[in-house]
Amino acid sequence: MSCGKMPGDSIFNMTGNTGNIDGLEAQLRQEILKELPYWLGFDQMTGVGLGARNTRRLFEHFLSAEAAWSASESDLKTLPWMKIEHIKQFIQKRSQIDFDNLLGILEKTEVTALPFYHPLYPSRLREISDPPLVLYLKGKLTPEELDHSIAIVGTRRPTTYGQRLAKEFSRGLAEAGATIVSGMAVGIDSLSHWGAIEGGGRTVAVLASGPDLCYPTSNKPLYNGLIDGTHGAVISEFFPGTKPEPWRFPARNRIISGLSKGVIVIEAGATSGSLITADIGFEQSREVFAIPGRVDAPMSMGCNKLIAQNKAQLVMNHVDVLNFLNWVSVPTPRDVPTMVELFGREKEVFELVTSEPVHFDVLSQKLEMSAGELSATLTMLELAGIVERLPGDWYSRQSKVSTI
Q1: Residue predicted with more confidence, 390 or 338
Q2: Which CATH number does 139-324 carry?
Q3: Contact 189/154 with Cβ under 8 angstroms?
Q4: What confidence tier does 401 reach under pLDDT thresholds 50, 70, 90?
Q5: The three-state (H, E, C) secondary structure of 227-239, written as one string
Q6: pTM more than 0.70
Q7: What is 338-403's CATH topology?
Q8: Would 139-324 and 338-403 be classified into the same CATH topology?
Q9: One-character DSSP codes across 183-196
């Protein structure tokens, strides 16, 4: 196992407060925290021809966001994929970026920024063709909560049939341990979020605005329950203060499906925006499910079409979804931890790994273990499904587990 620094190794928090973290871990976090302003700066680089993909290529080439940001014109000209006009626009615009202002806005709005290489950036989202450079989050969200995540989407004008099914599917899946992802729009989206909450589960709203803005305002009670971490979180690729313009809604659909293992379409008309999410999910190799309806019902036309085109699996209840995904082991009550019996060094290592990511070097130092022995022990814990390796040799607990 390599313990060396990788391009983009990073873990940030909003304030930079290390609390009781001591020694090497505090140094690591402080060292990489300084990268955050440069990620935010690049995220503001609209209209200069970079884009998220080329920005990541810059990081990989210069080995850090700071070095990429500070690169000279001559250094940038050596990159064959950087056009001269884009280089000049980038250099001009970067001089106008106020890092202190960006960080101040995050602090004021209590928004957490998760850059692409952050160990808490959703790993499934990294797989899509155009992942956001930075995610902005309010609330609480852990990697294990996204391990079993399902998107539920549908029309803003559901029938009584659609309203009932949205609640039943989301509640049943949440009770089984799944995290429900949707877009917090009126209709099926909102009903799905509330169904997850009623099922005692977690839910994530992907917004087409900054995460500090509630849209629509009628969803304020739902929004408040998410941003305080009680029931989940809100996520957006848009910086705080960004208004919900029409073009942002289709753009956020790729994140709804990208976060999820599968997408369920409850009700959708022939031209429903939910079909965009379903098509994107299909292109992202996500499982797509649809609930059939009457052939003459306008709000069932989209679902019936998806099924007829073999783009969606027909499902009649939430158990069909669980069975199709082989999530037979999911229905463990969330407040009952999985009990695992560990001995010796495995137990010592596991007890130092929590839901808050910890670095390999920190574990090695605290346990006074060689890199080889620690690597072998962590591998055994990974195979047991109780520890997850994150980018940059960070580790966290895979799920709610306690030792005997």
Answers
A1: 390
A2: 3.40.50.450
A3: yes
A4: low
A5: HCCCCEEEEECCC
A6: yes
A7: Arc Repressor Mutant, subunit A (1.10.10)
A8: no
A9: ---TTHHHHHHHHH
